[in-house]
Design a protein that fits this description.
By secondary structure, the chain is α/β, with parallel strands linked by helices. The chain has 2 domains: 207 residues, Alpha-Beta Complex (Spore Coat Polysaccharide Biosynthesis Protein SpsA, Chain A); 156 residues, 60s Ribosomal Protein L30, Chain: A (2-Layer Sandwich). It contains 12 helices and 18 strands. Strands 5-4-1-6-10-7-11 form a 7-stranded mixed beta sheet, sandwiched between helices. The protein has a 5-stranded mixed beta sheet with strand order 15-12-18-16-17. Helix 5 packs across helix 6 and helix 8 packs parallel to helix 10.
């Protein structure tokens, strides 16, 4: 009896998910999309071999997320999803598998019973795919934006992955149509004359495409993991608070949340004086009871003279991961008369999201003044206060 193998496609760039590293390497509650998908197949008792298709530039990212998993060496994808699929299929030829499941790494919540149903269906069908029935009324739009017709929904399904195939047939179909363009593997075997069976998927098996999908994933994974670990209270939720100030000095810009902002003065400090990032670093350290920024990066150490503050924030985030925790939410308030924070808020959110590997939807940045009172009101410097919510699993 031949082997059952799984191919996880992770070679795309995922530009619609926002700035930063490719979406498949971004994390939901401390676990990347790709790792979640790989684990689903590695832990399934009927899957013998699992391999990922990755982008050539992502080898270092892959090695981090694939650590300690029983995986076959990855293969590099091509310039299209179809080419990547063919590369992956050809890498399994030496094993002569009987069945193969092809899965999109951006669907990190595939259920074990969905995998089982697709595999079992291949006993009687050449191809099958996980899908969910459309329950909403479907309308077709005309060029003017009006409803042209209502489409019967009884025969409509939303395709998911994994898509399953008998190995010889899908390999032959891919080779036959390698110079044509199809949106998924099921369409390729259809073109080769095979029927594709629809199999019930799971509603949670959605594709992470846009930034808001990461928020949905945070909620979904939090519910699943709290149920799995029988968590019935919020004892694992912690909040840290950080505060910092820096006075103005000579210069023509300030750095806030890693973003250079033109200004009449600079800020004075041993490092780059990113007062906002310093407050946030302290908030994260406070959330895990790990002291403060000076404990790890003392101003007396010349090694940190002029250092970029993203070094401090990155280290604090690593410490959260080491404690089996995940950053859930950031709230940051910057207090100054000038410069204005609003025009730079989005850039700041994007930079923090990149450093923390967190959706920008979970990062709040506010600017306010002290109504001309105190040192900030006298325009002598900038203050920042931050709160970080952390879940320790």
């Amino acid at each position: 009896m031949g082997k059952n193998v799984a191919l996880v496609l992770a070679g795309g760039r995922g530009s619609r998910a926002g700035h930063g590293i490719p979406k498949q390497y971004r994390e939901i509650r401390g676990v990347s999309l790709l790792r979640r998908s790989l684990i689903a197949f590695c832990e399934h008792p009927e899957i013998n071999l699992v391999r990922a298709v990755i982008h050539p530039e992502d080898q270092h990212l892959y090695e981090m997320v694939a650590r300690d998993l029983p995986l076959e060496p990855p293969v590099f994808g091509g310039d299209t999803r179809q080419k990547s699929g063919l590369n992956g299929l050809e890498s399994f030829i030496e094993y002569s598998p009987s069945k193969i499941l092809i899965h999109d790494a951006a669907r990190p919540f595939v259920a074990a019973d969905t995998i089982t149903r697709v595999l079992d269906s291949l006993d009687s069908s050449t191809a099958a795919l996980a899908a969910s029935k459309i329950t909403d009324t479907v309308k077709k739009q005309d060029k003017g934006g009006y409803v042209r017709e209502t489409i019967p929904r009884e025969e409509l399904w939303r395709a998911q992955t994994p898509q399953g195939f008998r190995f010889k047939e899908i390999l032959a179909a891919h080779i036959q149509f390698q110079n044509e363009s199809y949106t998924d593997d099921a369409a390729i075997v259809e073109a080769a004359g095979h029927k594709v069976l629809l199999v019930d998927g799971n509603e949670e098996n959605f594709k992470v495409t846009n930034p808001e999908d990461f928020v949905r994933g945070e909620v979904l994974s939090g519910t699943e993991e709290m149920t799995t670990h029988n968590i019935v209270d919020l004892s694992g939720i912690r909040t840290g608070i950080g505060f910092d100030v820096h006075r103005f000095g000579p210069g023509d810009h300030v750095i806030l949340c890693g973003v250079p902002i033109p200004h009449t003065h600079g800020l004075l400090a041993h490092s780059d004086a990113d007062v906002a990032m310093h407050a946030l670093t302290d908030a994260i350290l406070g959330g895990i009871c790990a002291g403060d920024i000076g404990t790890y990066f003392p101003p007396s150490d010349m090694k940190w003279k002029g250092a970029s503050s993203d070094i401090f924030l990155t280290e604090a985030a690593k410490m959260v991961t080491q404690k089996n925790g995940v950053i859930n939410h950031i709230d940051l308030t910057i207090v100054c008369e000038t410069p204005k924070i609003g025009p730079h808020r989005e850039s700041m959110q994007s930079r923090l999201a990149e450093i923390l590997n967190l959706s920008s939807e979970l990062i709040s940045i506010k600017g306010t003044t002290s109504e001309k009172l105190g040192f900030t009101g006298r325009r002598e410097g900038i203050a920042a206060q931050a709160a970080a919510t952390i879940w320790i699993r």
